[in-house]
Each structure stands twice: as C-alpha cells, then as structure tokens.
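Consider a protein example.
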Amino acid sequence: MRPRKVARAAVVTHGKPRQIGAGVARLQAVAAEHGVELLFPPDEAEKQGLGGGSDPSGADIAVVLGGDGTVLRALTRFLGTGVPVVGVNFGRVGFLSATGRRDLEAGLARVFAGEYDVVELPTLELEHPGGTASAVNDVVVASASLGRMIELELAVGGEELGRQPCDGIICSTPSGSTAYNLSNGGPVLMWGLEAMALTYVAAHSLRARPLVIPPGADVIVWNRSPDVEAGVLVDGHRVSTLGKSERAVVRVGEERSLLATLPEATFVRRYRQSFAS
C-alpha cells in the first residue's frame, strides 16, 4: 500500500478523555494548518462533546491519541477497510505508536504530508463453539476459574502435540508478540514475519516451550479439564467458553491490519527504546 497525502483523517482517542489532555485541540490545530478534515465517529464525537459525529469510512488514515490499547482498538475497528492507523502515544509503553505526545505537531505534519510507511501485520482467525472471530493481537485460552489450573491438549498442523496442565495458552501475532506473550516469556516476532507464536501461561512442566507456527498450520486447543471451563479471549475480550472436550481452532489469517509509522520509527528502534534500554 503506497502512502498518500492525507485529506481526511478519522480520530480515535483513549477511553478516558482526561488521559490525552489538550491532545484533541492540538490535533485540530495541526489538521487545520494542513487542510485536513477530521472525522469523529459518533462515539468519539460524543466523548469529545462535538455533536453527532461523522462516518469515518472515507478516511485516508486514522489518527490515534492514546496508548497501545487504543491503537489496538483502532486496528480492529478499521480491519478490512484499507484505512491505516497511526498512533500518537499518550500511554505508557507506546510500542505501536509512531510518535510521542511531545512531538504530536511535527509528527502529524509529516503524516498529513504523506511522509509515512504502512506495515501490513498478520491477524489470526479463530473458530470457537459460538462462531468465528479475528484477532489483531492474540487469542488466549485460559482457565475461567481464578486460581484453578486447566489441562489443554494441542494439535498443530494435524499432528498431536500432547496435553499440558497450565493456566492457559497464548496464540500471538507478530504485533501482539510484545504484549501478553512477551510477559510470559514468549518469543518476539519481528514485523514482516507471517507467523504465530504459541506460549503457555504458567505451565506445570519444565519442558513446555514456546513454538512459532507458520501459515497453513491450524492450531487446535481442546479443554481436557473434567470440571473447569476455559475462557476464549480475543485481544483481551472474552468471546466464548470451552466446556469439557470442546475446542478452539486458531490459524494465521488472510486479513492484514495496517499500521502507519514514520520511516525512522522501525521495529528495531521501537524494541530498543521500549524493552532493551
């Protein structure tokens, strides 16, 4: 996808308006200076006290004022629309953001002028007892009872991987590999890889190790616990429950989430600044 000069930009902000302070006013000033029309979806317009809002589907780009969670929400919202998402970090880590809050004006001026790259990031497809879903960050199958271990059985690409007592398992995209997956000792997947990371949560074993799975290899997760249900979460939101012997199927998806970034804000630079320094 070739970047282009921005004429219309959708706006997505942190769930708590106080978190971004004068961020919206600063964004409006930059947009006015560069002749960019801002589109506030109805929920955002209500949050900011701006009236009825407008349809964001015709946007050239979506501008996020918030942390990684807000960027994730925007990537999900605009999945399949062709609208890339660029983040200005008003959160803590800001790994998915192109620029920080202090550089909002300079960074967005460059974005509005078309000086940005678009990274296409794999998603995950999920089949569960209640239907299907797409994940931008991760799919997690975990014990639905706090403090209760579950036993999960896995198969990868049609071959049995075995059973494992644990608190759960994380199926992560490259963009999600630096989130819950990383905090559980999973591998970091660089952007550009077409793969999924599998990482156990609190496995009751010294031999349970993360795996990196290529496209085309379905991961099947069965709940083999006799009396504990497993919750199925997509990007942190519970979408289903697995009873005894019920299963979820996860695979690398066909859709791509579109993350816009300034040319110098590479994966390695973000990784070094966020986790290695």
Q: What stands out?
A: The CA atoms of residues 43 and 53 lie 8 Å apart. The chain has two domains: 8-116+262-276, 123-254.
